[in-house]
Model the fold of this input.
Amino acid sequence: MSKKKKSIIARLLIIINFFLALGLLISASSPIIPPKSIFNVISVVGIAFPVLAICNIFCALCWLITKPKYALVSFIALIISSNVFFNHFRFIPAKEKNIKGSIHLMSYNVRNFVSTNKKRILNKDEIGKFLKEQSPDILCMQEFGPKAGKDNIISDFKKDINARQYFFNNYYPKTKGSPGLIIFSKHPIIDYGSVSDYKKRVFTIYTDIVIQKKDTIRVFDTHLESIRLQPKETEFFINVNSKSKEELKKEPKVIVRKIRNAYGNRIEQVNILKKKISESPYPCFVCGDFNDTPSSWAYYQIKKSLKDGFTNAGFGTGITYNGSLPLLRIDYIFTPKNAIIQKVKSHRINYSDHYPQSSWVEIKKAG
Done:
């Protein structure tokens, strides 16, 4: 290869590296910018943070081998975005702790018990068996269909995990038998409630639970607005090259409209949830499907007053989404700042398009 061609390729790689680094910095800014109007673009780029981070690490390592001075571009971008980076990736395993005596919380979006395979069969029995084995003390579920066929799933699951009480609310209370949110507890529930957005959709429920007959906590089960992308729309990002001109023109418009609507609704929901947390007379735990990543405005708003179990006791990437889009962590268990997180786990089972999340927590009294 001639020197001229080598020079052109080198310049092209430098330009690509520059845009990857710029993309990473834009992505890292999404937590501090509310996703409104033109800023929806920044929020969308925020979703790609893990991929952009990996690309920049790869670029930096390649330049170190060939031309070290060019590695600075990616290194600087990675350093500036390090706070967001460590919300996605944890490289040091947490020390093994004794979970005896701790409270086991679990959050699981069960997708209305419809499996992710092509047959789309009901898998409530498999999920019930899994929950019986795990036996969480407090279980928060989203997209929970209260009935499947002639079976009453609530009674079955209450028995499976030996729960003492539960609270269920449909997303749309006027629609009987529709999916919703549910909290099961092995401990006494002394109060409960639901939270709706301006569309009258119940996006959060809560229960006040007495732990070990002395400490009362408030557990929120939340499901923030989804973008509601169909399978063909998520595949658009993966198989762009195979799309026709008509599809390339039409599908992005549909996707952008859905993103704009979802982010707008999510802003309102998060602000309502923050207010409910601040008004709580008890220490708060927030479990659920945020439909947003750790590089999002929604995540950072909740993390201001609580702490994320994964960033305190997790390892690796903590992926929670079992779908075609890679490296997504969108399900969380937040705890009070003074709680001791003994262990966290993402259960890699394929019964839903989400993986169930577990957190073992020791509750500390304030003061």
Q: What stands out?
A: The radius of gyration is 22 Å.
